[in-house]
Amino acid sequence: MNFDGLIHELTRTVELVGIAVLLLGALLASGAFLRDWSTSGLGDAYHRYRANLGRAILLGLEILIVADIIRTIAVEPTLDNLAVLALIVLIRTFLSFALEIEIGGQWPWQRAARGAPHEPPART
């Protein structure tokens, strides 16, 4: 197998991992929704479902961006390919940003200023 074939297989594998994360995340979020619905009601379960589904989508998008970067840089780093990569990353970054706002209900820098609970504690 030549270098291009190896990179193609590698990017295909990373893409499949990204798709698997999306599907598994959707399944797990749906299962949690059904469990939460029966215990805490539809309203609370719905909001948690959207947040969990959004997190799965964010992770899946980040993995798919990795595959795009590998493919563009390793296979054919032409200006056209780099422009397409930049556009793909821009669109996916916008989607990620919009999902982050939807999940958190605030701008990301507002959460950072308040000390987000999901951030690891500072080491002293």
List its salient traits.
single chain, 124 residues, mainly alpha, 4 helices, 84% helix, flat, disordered C terminus
Overview in brief:
With 124 residues, this protein is mainly alpha-helical. 84% of the residues lie in helices and 0% in strands.
Can you put this structure into words, describing what you see?
The protein has one domain (3-114). Helices cover 84% and strands 0% of the residues. The protein has 4 helices and no strands. Helix 1 packs antiparallel against helix 2 and helix 2 (42-74) packs antiparallel against helix 3. The longest helix has 38 residues, at 3-40.
The global form is flat
Number of domains: 1
> Compute the gyration radius: what is it?
18 Å
Order of helices and strands: HHHH
Rounded average pLDDT: 83
Beta-strand content bin: under 5%
Main sheet specs: none
Low-confidence stretches: 119-124
What percent of the residues sit in helical stretches (DSSP H or I)?
Answer: over 70%
Q: What's the tally of helices?
A: 4
Question: Could you tell me the number of beta strands?
Answer: 0
For the termini, the CA-CA separation is 49 Å
Which class do the helix and strand fractions yield? mainly alpha
